[in-house]
User: Which sequence fits this backbone?
């Protein structure tokens, strides 16, 4: 096979790969709800923000997105928050007024309420950053089916990273866990999912 034909084939393959990367957005499967042992999934909680205590119950009547992560997260958290915030921007002002978002830090040793406030506002000024005691976080995570664990990494800040569940939890207007939005869901699919939840009674 001539060198010219090989070059043409390589160019076509590169174009196909680039096209897939830009335009292919597969439908993401429905994520099953987590089940906490001994009771229904989800539930109310109260944690600390830079402005004081924040309870999930404070947002009754709104759709609430809850994400468990930490500010030193190198890639997963920024990716999720960026996609979600872009999705929120695509809502109409009336729709956006009906949606709240809480970022729960599972790294209370490093994430102070002040640091959390600065971090989440970089993505969207409407996101509220909260954290609490290790015991409180552990109990809340268990009710939501969230996994997180410290892993020693010499090159990371303070010598560790935190592996954690990366889905965004959706709480309906009555305070019930309604579903999840998978990590890496593109912004245009985030806004579609949010509008579906907003239509629910």
Assistant:
């Amino acid at each position: 096979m001539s060198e010219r034909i090989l070059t043409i084939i390589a160019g076509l393959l590169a174009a196909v790969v680039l096209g897939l990367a830009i335009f292919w957005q597969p439908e993401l499967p429905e994520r099953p709800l987590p089940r906490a042992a001994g009771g229904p999934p989800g539930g109310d909680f109260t944690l600390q923000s830079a402005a004081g205590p924040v309870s999930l119950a404070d947002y009754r009547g709104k759709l609430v997105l809850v994400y468990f992560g930490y500010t030193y997260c190198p890639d997963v958290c920024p990716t999720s928050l960026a996609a979600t915030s872009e999705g929120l921007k695509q809502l109409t002002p009336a729709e956006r007024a009906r949606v709240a978002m809480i970022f729960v830090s599972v790294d209370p040793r490093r994430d102070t309420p002040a640091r959390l406030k600065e971090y989440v506002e970089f993505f969207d000024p409407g996101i509220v950053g909260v954290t609490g005691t290790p015991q409180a976080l552990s109990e809340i995570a268990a009710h939501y089916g969230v996994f997180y664990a410290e892993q020693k990494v010499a090159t990371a800040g303070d010598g560790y990273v935190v592996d954690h569940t990366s889905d965004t939890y959706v709480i309906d207007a009555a305070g019930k866990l309604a579903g999840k939005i998978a990590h890496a869901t593109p912004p245009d699919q985030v806004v579609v999912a949010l509008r579906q939840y907003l239509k629910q009674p």
Remarks:
- The radius of gyration is 20 Å.
- Residues 5-40 have pLDDT under 50 and may be disordered.
